[in-house]
Amino acid sequence: MDPIRVTVWGENRHEQTEEHVAGLYPEGMHETIAAGIREHLGDAAVVRTATLDEPGHGLSEPVLAATDVLTWWGHAAHGEVADEVVDRVHRHVLSGMGLVVLHSGHWSKIFTRLMGTTCTLRWRNEHDRELIWTVDPTHPIAQGVPHPIVVAEDEMYGEHFDVPPPDELVFISSFSGGEVFRSGCTWRRGHGRIFYFKPGDQDYPVYHHRDIRRVIANGVRWARSDRPERVLPELLRYDTGEFFTGRSYQGPTA
Amino acid sequence: MDPIRVTVWGENRHEQTEEHVAGLYPEGMHETIAAGIREHLGDAAVVRTATLDEPGHGLSEPVLAATDVLTWWGHAAHGEVADEVVDRVHRHVLSGMGLVVLHSGHWSKIFTRLMGTTCTLRWRNEHDRELIWTVDPTHPIAQGVPHPIVVAEDEMYGEHFDVPPPDELVFISSFSGGEVFRSGCTWRRGHGRIFYFKPGDQDYPVYHHRDIRRVIANGVRWARSDRPERVLPELLRYDTGEFFTGRSYQGPTA
Amino acid sequence: MDPIRVTVWGENRHEQTEEHVAGLYPEGMHETIAAGIREHLGDAAVVRTATLDEPGHGLSEPVLAATDVLTWWGHAAHGEVADEVVDRVHRHVLSGMGLVVLHSGHWSKIFTRLMGTTCTLRWRNEHDRELIWTVDPTHPIAQGVPHPIVVAEDEMYGEHFDVPPPDELVFISSFSGGEVFRSGCTWRRGHGRIFYFKPGDQDYPVYHHRDIRRVIANGVRWARSDRPERVLPELLRYDTGEFFTGRSYQGPTA
Amino acid sequence: MDPIRVTVWGENRHEQTEEHVAGLYPEGMHETIAAGIREHLGDAAVVRTATLDEPGHGLSEPVLAATDVLTWWGHAAHGEVADEVVDRVHRHVLSGMGLVVLHSGHWSKIFTRLMGTTCTLRWRNEHDRELIWTVDPTHPIAQGVPHPIVVAEDEMYGEHFDVPPPDELVFISSFSGGEVFRSGCTWRRGHGRIFYFKPGDQDYPVYHHRDIRRVIANGVRWARSDRPERVLPELLRYDTGEFFTGRSYQGPTA
């Protein structure tokens, strides 16, 4: 099979403005995430990166057309992501591009648009220990990691997480404070597969953690479509502003 | 329990411009749909109607705040529904207002926004017989109707229907041409419950059909929230344009 | 609507043999559970009890036929429950009787038969604090309780819980040790509704807890069937030992 | 990756006693099913067969231990399958062996035990045309087949199909009589994956059909576990007759 073409998208702002974050991620969080995917997938993946401040946020039509799976980390600047880029990414996901949404990406425009809900949650940035328990031990995303994965420190995310009930619930996290969170969830939307994975606040070295990198790599492999072509679901009418005037369907024998 | 406050929303355009439709629905499709709900729910519901050409499409903030369940039929003029009204309805659904989407409402702005997908399907308007089979005989929405419900003539809707996998699949339809369609589906989004029900093209007298009316009435009853208050999921951040600045959660004992 | 006819089944052995348990539940755990249901449902329910050492375990055909919802607590003596009684309960659940399975009932014959899996889990009986978080705030079973419910002490149950993915996940618990558990789950089987709820080891006074009682009462209300008759799914062939010789189906117009 | 070790199990009775069936399947239905899998998977699979009248039905412990995916076709002799063989297959499925159940296998002991329900359905053996529509176009099992698959003649199976709601609904069939059926369904049970696929009555040459063979081959590939070891879910207690006496769990840091 051809290598998976991965684009790792990073907001890349905290790394510019906060010394502490720059210390943890000298080349940017996106480079560390990309390195983790390369580490686990090797020749099975070709990984590039893109960031908010590149033209078109580095997500032009040709880039997306050549991307099998996009990963997304954003936080402070969700509002700066251009709507036309969100439209483009949305269309590609519904057409079959995989999407892996990380941590604070829960409030990104692309994720909330795909979910249709507020995607709110509870949070507390106070060095909680996070334990990540597998609740679907058969899932490809859960292979090769301990039960639980132990993250010494990360931001707490707690329920209620306002997303549609996931198609598959893979991981549940608990925190020092006793909170719980559905921290690994999958959904199918159109022809695309979506994986949300909770760990990864910018204030902690979470994307250097071996098991977290493994889960993200597993998620990338899982999210790649089995369909050979990138197409929107048929009789496509993506925008809602106009009445569709396509052809009537004349049946299986027509 | 208090009566369910229902608002039946109708586009009400075909009835103005097409003699054939006016003949089937002299007072508008919305009035026939409303009559069917009253017929089955009696004193258990208080039903009003609203239409596209009323100011604010008849869906002001006070109207929605006093609506437990909204039903939606639209077709030719989805694009004329104002975005601010869609925002308002969306917020109310996520806060707990029930939504029953009928037939060509599958391409309404509110439904596609809640689903996050294209909501496309195959169609053919050629007098197919529709058989509506129950696949979840325990579901409250399926009570009191034959298996199958027989609709002598309606528009064909066929798979693939590009929606998220329904939380519950209640009905599957077949058509004269051999096509199938997931014709009764439920989803939960935020605090709201959504029921999509396929029958009801404007060219056929479907909303005079006893069993179809029963299903819609059942759907209205099911869609009413059990929660006493109308509130968005907590730590609400509905728009995606700004960084949330709420309080950190201090845990169950704080 | 008629009152819900509830039968609370209790193994009632620990109460006979362990002074500590008898002290917590002088009249037996089943009587305390029954009292909690009466407290919350009042005239909306008629509650009786049955126990292992009664003839036929108190679950004769007439008793089951007059039971809308059965609750089940067992632990030390699962193996003593007669297979013919399990057959009878199974047939009634598939025919529409609701079933609420409590705590160590996860390993009862009736639950494992309905699930088809081992229903194993991790456990530790060392006075963990249990926090029960709502992950489906719209669910009728989750109404009227705090988020989280705090149980000062109970046995720990941890993932992986080997059950089919629940149709609806209502609650997730965390424990002092950091473990998590899908502690409130629903499944539909045949015409019956099943609710599993984790709290309630015999060594702790959990069934005196106001919120736990509320959840069980909510579960009973939810599990009552909407169908008017108690019947197995059609073309019934319950045992697998014989070839079915029923009539061919001649279609909707025959 | 190693080739998938497939065992195709066939009841192989109709082929012995009915000339018509022997004419369609001179070497037995199991050999035709096996040939179809080989045709599509080639070197990626090693396929053997086993039948009812072999000792232990050809499903000894060593055979199952060396089987990644088992396919099952039975009809007239479900009752002759020994309970100890069913126990063994059940344990292997829960431990990670994939299972593909075909057509009248819906009433096999192994399938009803895994489902926990009656698995009844409506049927009519009168040469209906069957159309098999894809409702999850992203699913690996649905790749490479037309929409719909057209089967000129097969037995009709109609709803209501009394199984647990499938984890994934891949195909829905319609029939000449207008009936519908959830004809391609998946479930996860324990560490095992299960795929039910409806086509294939013994009176028709369905397993010679190119697309049907493709789906079965896809199902085999999908059902193979990602887990490296064949083990029951942990703290294993398979039978329900005895109280578990295993070790208490001392937590992630113990």
UniProtKB/TrEMBL annotation, chains A, B, C, D:
Identify the domain of life: Bacteria
Q: Which residues form the ThuA-like domain?
A: 5-223
Which InterPro entries does this entry report, sorted A to Z? Class_I_gatase-like, ThuA-like, Trehalose_catabolism_ThuA_prok
Q: List the SUPFAM superfamilies.
A: Class I glutamine amidotransferase-like
Q: What is this protein called?
A: Trehalose utilization protein ThuA
Task: Output the lineage of the source organism.
Answer: Bacteria, Bacillati, Actinomycetota, Actinomycetes, Micromonosporales
